[in-house]
Amino acid sequence: MPAKINRQMVIAGIPQDRLEVSHYAMSEAPVSELGENQTLVRTLLISMDPVSRTRITGAPGGLQIGDVMPSSGIGQVVASRHPDFTEGQIVECQTGWQDYSVHGPEALSTFARLGPLTHHLSLYGVSGLTGYFGMAEAGGPNPGETVLVSAAGGAVGHIAGQVAKIRGARVVGIVSSQEKADWLTGTLGYDAAIDRRAGPLSGAIKQACPDGVDLYFDNVGGEMLETALTRMKDHGRIVICGYASQYDTQTPATATRGVPSVVLYKRLRIDGYVVMDYYDQKQTARGQLAAWLEADKLKLSIDLLEGLERAPEGFVGLFNGENRGKRMIQVAEEE
Ligand SMILES: NC(=O)c1ccc[n+]([C@@H]2O[C@H](COP(=O)([O-])OP(=O)(O)OC[C@H]3O[C@@H](n4cnc5c(N)ncnc54)[C@H](OP(=O)(O)O)[C@@H]3O)[C@@H](O)[C@H]2O)c1
């Protein structure tokens, strides 16, 4: 039988500054034979995660030209030499941007189905859980508080914002277009939304949060964090979930400049937050998210592009704010 061909999207160039579609190229390789205990997985869905951009700097230990772009995803077992995995099973793993991947048992996980696979890569996966725990647990908004969320229409942000709404807070989102801002207020139920490209951010936050911000859920870092600091109430809290504004560059900003003085005089609390710290409560969170979805208290937005060849365009688009909700690539259909 001829060997299966594996299409792979590989790194074709290291960006000097911003990532472009031309930094990727499609190549083909035969699918390797399975070793003892190994499992062959056919990729169904791949996750678009902005932080992966930080691995394409050309630095030793990072991605190099010819490497397959790494990514988590969901796939279906095609063949296995391990007793725990059988043909047709659905698994989560590091699929990478390719049609097939080979894994040992420790690199594969199965899950109880709560809905379509797209829900498992979004709401019940890392993004949804990050929004849920980041807001419900790390942030802990109280009824009536003003909560500001950056990248508020993204995979994590659109869940975090809605969790704050469910908890009774007044929620304001920051996004990159008026159209996206209208979607936050019109469809997701945000109380107000700011187009970060429309004008000076400080004035826009002041207008949307006239009494100041109690809780800032930050996905973006950089200047946006510095600006938001000055709009915090005394004793305000900040959850640092990510710093997406610093991913798509070869020269991320490191300076904290005026940050310490603002933190000091406003008596702010800034918490670094990593979703994995809450994984012992994963099943409870999934149950809660499923119940809110079912009751239409929470809306899930999936931004699906079809075809492995669209992965570079889909990924680059994250840094232009093109996505609404969780962006993912459908590589193949479940069989
Ligand atoms: N702490 C954790 O455990 C954890 C786990 C997963 C993800 N994260 C972090 O959560 C954040 C959101 O991730 P995600 O997967 O949900 O991505 P996402 O929000 O779906 O996509 C990234 C968004 O970032 C915004 N953005 C991109 N470049 C920007 C820039 N230069 N300035 C301002 N905003 C910019 C854009 O939103 P707009 O169009 O709305 O401006 C874009 O849609 C990331 O920082 C990620 O690293 C953290």
Features:
Quinone Oxidoreductase, Chain A, domain 1; 2 domains; binds NADP nicotinamide-adenine-dinucleotide phosphate; Rossmann fold; about 325 residues; six-stranded mixed sheet
Q: Would you give an account of this structure?
A:
The model has no long low-confidence stretch (mean pLDDT 96). Strands 3, 4, 5, 6, 13 and 14 form a 6-stranded mixed sheet that branches. With 335 residues, the protein is α/β, with parallel strands linked by helices. Helix 2 crosses helix 8 (282-294). The longest helix has 14 residues, at 126-139. Helix 6 links the parallel strand 10 (213-218) and strand 11 (232-240). 24% of the residues lie in helices and 25% in strands. It folds into 2 domains: 5-122 and 301-330, Alpha-Beta Complex (Quinone Oxidoreductase, Chain A, domain 1); 126-277, Rossmann fold (3-Layer(aba) Sandwich), CATH 3.40.50. The structure holds NADP nicotinamide-adenine-dinucleotide phosphate. NADP nicotinamide-adenine-dinucleotide phosphate (NAP) binds next to helix 2.
